[in-house]
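Review this today:
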Amino acid sequence: MNIGIEKLDTHEGVTVKVLLDSGATGMFIDKRTAARHGFMLQKLKRPIMVRNVDGTNNSGGAIIHQVEANVHYKGHVERIRIDICDLGKTEVILGMPWLQAHNLEINWETGEVKIMRYPLLCSGTRSRGVEKGKRVATLEEEKIVRWAIDDKEDWGREEEIKEGHRKIEELVPRKFLK
């Protein structure tokens, strides 16, 4: 799927391929993609460790920068902060915070992706996020989206990191560990 990303400093738009990843805990742009298109980098207060799907550390190291940009998709526009890391051949990943907030409908036969919910935090969306018959985001969903576009450490990132590194024995009931 392709999306448009608009640089805030020049308002120049670029089209990038995006991977929708329900296993990703945030939104990410590949560091080479960000450099090639000249995005203005914002340094994070603290680095964020990156783990690959298999649990190993990402070869590109910790996330130390992010990009703030407007994302455009089929009439939907929103401003988000995207973490910069090494994604290999993938240009952009939109993970669970974005997926939960927008409740996508995917037609697997045609590949068409529709946004079914427009959170109130998104600007320039159809009817400011309220379409007839569509429910608006709950407070928890708004918190997820706000975490994704604001300073992550202000929204419980430390607790998320602690939870993400618990041992399997703490997560699975004892009767299933034999």
